[in-house]
Specification:
Length: about 240
């Protein structure tokens, strides 16, 4: 009986230690005359070397400073799984170095991010083919303020039936929060006729004039914010 009791105590700890909420991502762009070749090489590499827990989802970046490039996500995984992954092997590395890397302008960004279920309105793996990514950077010392803003927005997203996955950058440069709006109904969700504006919905939930107070807090806590549109490329992703 004592052994069973101890095992019951360990189960929650084991569950927490194996949480798969970490996403590894990187971005690449093709050299000016190598677009088609890069797509072919990237697809072949993803489908041969990245499967299971290490599968790739590849997005083509449509707008923003990285437009024309590719956003590649791997996972989700746990930190323990990432730590114990080990070397990817000489064959994998040789394929990347020989067949993919020479066609690119170099790795643009590479980062880890962790999914925050408390601030999200959608499950981590409940994906969509078209997404909007909003990158929010807190001012120094204002991380908690930005978290508060995100939690307020969650109620608005829920009221508007928006699928938003929220991540925080993990040990990857300037602290930021990444809100990924998954457009389950496609781009028509961006039309004003599909859903009322954010200020209107905010005032409806929190009371008239509350949007102005939100903006005042936003100016106090947020250093910078930018957004981009991405489309999923199943043909370039792991199968």
């Amino acid at each position: 009986m004592r052994k069973i009791f101890l095992l019951c105590l360990l189960v929650p700890l084991l569950g927490m230690s194996q949480t798969k909420n970490v996403i590894n991502s990187f971005r690449i762009s093709a050299k000016s005359d190598k677009g088609a070749e890069l797509e072919k090489a990237l697809a072949a590499h993803a489908q041969k070397y990245h499967s299971g827990d290490w599968k790739w989802r590849v997005f083509e970046i449509q707008t923003g400073p990285d437009a024309g490039g590719f956003h590649v996500t791997e996972g989700p995984n746990s930190w323990e799984a990432i730590d114990s992954r080990g070397n990817l092997g000489a064959e994998h590395t040789a394929d990347w170095d020989k067949n993919v890397a020479p066609l690119t302008t170099g790795i643009g960004t590479q980062s880890y991010s962790t999914f925050d279920a408390e601030m999200s309105t959608v499950q981590l793996t409940d994906y969509a083919d078209k997404i909007i990514i909003n990158h929010t950077f807190p001012k120094p010392g204002m991380v908690n303020g930005v978290i508060g803003l995100m939690k307020k927005l969650k109620k608005i997203w829920e009221a508007g039936n928006e699928s938003v996955a929220v991540y925080s950058a993990a040990f990857s440069g300037t602290p930021q929060y990444i809100a990924v709006t998954r457009l389950k109904a496609g781009l028509k969700e961006l039309d004003p006729a599909f859903r009322k504006s954010l200020p209107e919905r905010f005032n409806a939930v929190y009371g008239e004039g509350s949007w102005d107070y939100y903006l005042a807090d936003y100016a106090k806590y947020v250093e910078n914010r930018w957004s981009e549109m991405l489309f999923y490329r199943s043909d370039l992703s792991s199968k």
